[in-house]
Amino acid sequence: MPRFGCGCHHLEAAKHRFEILPKHGSWLNAVEIEFAVLSRQCLDRRIDSMERLRSEVEAWSRKRNQKRVGVKWRFTTDDARRKLPCLYPKISSNPS
Predict the structure, then answer these.
(1) Is pLDDT at 67 greater than 60 in this prediction?
(2) Distance between CA 63 and CA 58 in Å, rounded?
(3) What are the respective helix, strand and coil percentages of the chain, to the nearest 5?
(4) Mean of the per-residue pLDDT values of the chain
(5) Which of 9, 41, 48, 49 could form a disulfide with 4 if both were Cys (CB 3.0 to 4.6 A apart)?
(6) How far apart are CA 27 and CA 90, in angstroms?
(7) Nearest Cα residue to 29 out of 78, 76, 92, 71
(8) What span, in angstroms and rounded, lies between the C-alpha atoms of 14 and 8?
(9) What angle do CA 54, 62, 20 make, to 5 degrees?
(10) Phi and psi dihedrals of 60, rounded to 5?
(11) CA dist., res. 69 & res. 66, Å (int)
C-alpha cells in the first residue's frame, strides 16, 4: 500500500510551507551546491529506512554547520558586469 493510501496525505502536506521565490538568485545556487555536497557525502549509498535517512542527514548537517562551511563564489562582480550589463551597470566614482 502506498504511504499515503490511508487518505491522510493532506495532513502530511500541511507540514510543508511553500513560498514563491525567484529562480534566478545566488541563494538558489548555494542551495543547489549544498544538495550536491549532501548527495556526494551522505546519500551515495542505499539507506534502508526513513529514520536512518533522517538520522544520517541530521548528522551530516550538524558536522557541516560545526565546520562553518561556506560557498566559494567564482562568479565575480566584474563577471556579472561583463555578462549581464543591464543588471549590473558600472558605477562611476566621478560626480557629474
Answers:
(1) yes
(2) 9
(3) 45, 0, 55
(4) 77
(5) 9
(6) 23
(7) 71
(8) 10
(9) 70
(10) -60, -45
(11) 8
- CA 88 to CA 8: how far, in whole Å? 48
For residues 84 and 23, which has the higher predicted lDDT (pLDDT)?
84
Cell of 79: 563577471
pLDDT value for 93: 73
CA distance 64 to 38: 10
pLDDT digits (tens, 9 = 90+) for 48-58: 999 999 999 99
Whether residue 14 is predicted with pLDDT greater than 60 in this model: the reply is no
CA distances from 65 to 38, 59, 87 (A): 12, 10, 33
What residues contact residue 88 under an 8 Å CB cut-off, 6+ apart? 77, 80, 81
> To which residue does cell 566614482 refer?
93
Residue 43 exposed, middle or buried by CB count within 10 Å (0-12, 13-18, 19+): middle
Residue 88 confidence (pLDDT): 75
